[in-house]
Structures are given as structure tokens and as C-alpha cells.
Amino acid sequence: MTIIKAKYILFSILLILSAIGCEEDNSASAESPILNIATAANVQFAMKDIVAAFQNKYKIEVNIILGSSGKLTAQIIQGAPYDLLISANIKYPLHLYQEKFAPNPPKIYALGSLVLWTMEETLQLDPELNFLNSNKVHKIAIANPKNAPYGTEALNTIEHYNLEEVINNKLVFAESIAQTNLYITTKNCEVGFTAKSVVLSPEMKEKGHWIEIPKSAYQPIAQGIIMTKYGDSKHQEIAQKFYNFMFSTEVQNILKQYGYSLPVDYFK
Q1: Is the pTM of this model over 0.85?
Q2: Residue 126 and residue 178 share a domain
């Protein structure tokens, strides 16, 4: 056998082995689907820790899609391939179930709290919210109540303190809590209503100052999770794993660190 012929045979064997390796990689990839989770913006910081813990335990890749609960729900109805919805309230997941876009009813995983947050060092925040009517406040950021449950409860708070008429022209509506936070942190608005989980996050807890809104001023923000019809049909096993994981002790401890109350604690 000539040296040239031997090299040709060796090259051919390497090509075959390479092809087999690619087939195995493609097969492994096909067996490792990505879990797409539509997530309300108020949960985004807590979800980083939750997803990290989940991936460490199950080695399942997770993709988070952030937005307002209303818009994410609309996207699911329009056919978006989301396996689960982690909403800022129970209303939107319940709507998906009632309209047959989910096989099982939703469940409350946490209760969120509302705060007022500012980057203005000289702005004095008071629990009665009278400072909102002062000449130091020109713009108040609030998530759009049409899509964002935290925006709905912010409006309820304003009505509770009979401030709707005096500060109505100061309200700046954002698409979601994420955009509300942007308005606040960039000082486009002097103050804004946001989620307690945001101001307690490692990324934000050193920025500005805030006060928590009394629970008597708004309805409990019961946040729900639901597996979609898509998730049930395409990735039922891994979607169920994440759903169950959201009610584990590990995740409950994470949620507490971000200022959420657990339903069992709240309704005792």
C-alpha cells in the first residue's frame, strides 16, 4: 500500500467518524429542548436566581421572555411558543385556562408588594403620599394598568388616598414594570410605583430610596403560574418540572428574599 493511498484511507475514516460525531451532537441537541417561560417584569430579578437553581438541579436550558402580563397573555393567545406563563396576577393565567389555552387551572405562587421609589435624594417620601402633590414632583411613573397588574394596584392606591384628581396630570404610563423602573432610575420621573422585588434585587437595592405602600391601600397582588397548551403538548415533562419547582422550599426561600409573601402565610 502506498503512502498516498494510506493517507487517503485514514482521511476517509476521519471524515466518517466526524460525521458520526455530528449526528450524535444533533441527536443530543434534539433531545434537549429549551423551556420558554413568559415572565412578568416584576419577577425578572428573582427569576435569575430561580432559573439558575433549576438549571443546576435538572440541567434543562431555560429561556426567559419578559413583558407585561397582559401582553404576554395576548402573545400566547396569538400562538407564541411559550411553555409557561409566570404572571403578575391570577387574572391573566385564569383567562388562558378559561379560553382553553391551558389544560389546567393556574395556581398562586406568591403575593407581590407595591412600593414608591425615587432616585431624588432630597425627596422626602411619606406613607400618606401627600408629597406626590408637591411642586418637587412633576412626573410619576406607573405601569399601564391595561397590561400590568402593578399598574392597576398603583391606581387603586392613588384612589385610596383620594389623589386621582390632583396628580392625574403627573402620571406617566409605562408599558411594564421594567419600563417603569427605567423611567425612575434615569430620573425621567422623580418617583414611581414599582414592585418591592425590584428594589430588593442585588442590581437595584443600592439605588435611590423607597417606601412600601400599606397593604390596606390596594388589593393583594396574587401572582399566578400556568402551563400553556403549547407547553403541555410540546414539553410537558420539563414544563411540569419547572411548575413543580416554583412551589419548592428552595424557590419559596428565594421569593421571600425578594420581598414576596407566600399565599399560605398571607391568608393565615
Answers
A1: no
A2: yes
